[in-house]
Amino acid sequence: MKTIVTGALMMMLVMLNFDSIAQCREFKWPEDKSTAEEKVALYGDAMKQGQYKAALKPFTWMLKNAPNWHVKLYIDGADIYDNLAEKEKEPVRKQQLVDSMLLMYDLRIKNCGDEVNVLNRKAFYAYKYNVTNKDKSVELLSLFDRVAEISGTEMSDGNLVAYMQAVQANRVMLKNLTDDQILERYDKIISIANAKVKAYEAKGKTKDATKIKEYIGVIDELLIGMVKVDCNFVKTNLEPKFRKTPDDLPLAKKIFSFMLQDKCTDDPLWLEVGELINKSEPDFGLAKNMGLKYMGSDNFDKAEQFLKEALDLATTPADKADIFIYLGSIQAKKNNKNGARDYYRKAAEAGNKDGYEKIGDLYYTSFNDCKKGVNMAEDRLVYIAAYNMYARAGASQKMAQAKSQFPSKEEIFLFNWKVGDTMRVGCWVGETVTIDTRD
Predict the structure, then answer these.
(1) Other CB atoms closer than 10 Å to residue 13's CB: what's the count?
(2) What's the rounded Cα separation, in Å, for the pair 161 and 156?
(3) All structural domains of the chain with their residue ranges
(4) What would the mean pLDDT of 60-79 be, rounded to a whole number?
(5) What are the phi and psi torsion angles at 15 (to 5°)?
(6) Which residues pair with 434 in a beta bridge?
(7) Which of 76, 114, 156, 331 is spaced 20 to 30 A from 213 at the CA atom?
(8) pTM beyond cutoff 0.70
(9) Residue 136: what pLDDT?
(10) Architecture (CATH level 2) of domain 282-352
(11) Using CA of residue 249, residue 255, residue 261, residue 263, what is the dihedral sign?
């Protein structure tokens, strides 16, 4: 219940913005107008002074004798009972005051209409006081269900999270909801939230859109706390929806996140939604990870596509260097050693010494490709070229390994070479090296 209580405190701070279009906008005084004016003045002055208990008696007279006076009567009544409930310590009396406050919203709807606006307000204040009240959980959830039914996308922003926390309260305290019942409400809330994001973005209200996106994150966390959201959940509940709406970006993001969390990124669905997300909202990290995923499955064309996109999105030399390394590795796997070396050099130039080490690996493994079998000393020059690259990378172990493959003194003597001479390495390597021996 800690999550519920924390959420309740958080949501109390959310401001509810409703359009107040209702009946009861013209004053309708009772026959005894002078007494009514006196009662309004009395409770109004008491409210201004924070004396809500003193305001209660004259307010009650108005409620009984002039129920159609003005919508202000019900607004003031809710305010009076709200303030009294906040200060009341005795649980039974506190609940009575809360119930009276909520009744003000019902009477306002009955006498003044404006059900969508008023019921949204009632739901929020019912949530404020009753979300941790086990005896009120079913009633609270039923109220939110009704609000969602009549409001649709007009549901107040603050009620989105409150609705999901009402679901959580029923699940935790009463254990009266199945996974399907939770998911049904979750889908309803998320659908409204996504529609709100689009509407705000269309109006250029980026702060409001960002706020709703943050709410969606909270709602997702609440769902995860109630329902086992794993790869099976995604495949069973979310993939069918995605197949019907393959351009649904918010759904794609949800699938991507849930599958990443449960580590089932080998599923083609993860890559599919990742591509949609990257196409709609290009991102360096996403493009890089997509490229590496395709690289791991030897889909080099796709891997190269995403890694090149990541390269275009990279903003730092270090990020660019990393991508050059990966692109070089793809070329190496394709046995395009020249192409691989070009990328590795770019990585080294961008500050990543691993590029030199990778070039050293290319040279070291080129012995069989480049050897002529006539002059062993000449054939072993690739190891000197590899050593030089390892030295630039500071890879001491590989330096020692390469040196162990240098020509011997006897081998260079047979061809009248001397230590310190320079020679050109043939084949694709094309490096000039200084003769040295392993012994």
Answers:
(1) 7
(2) 10
(3) 228-278, 282-352, 366-434
(4) 94
(5) -85, 135
(6) 422
(7) 114
(8) no
(9) 95
(10) Alpha Horseshoe (1.25)
(11) negative
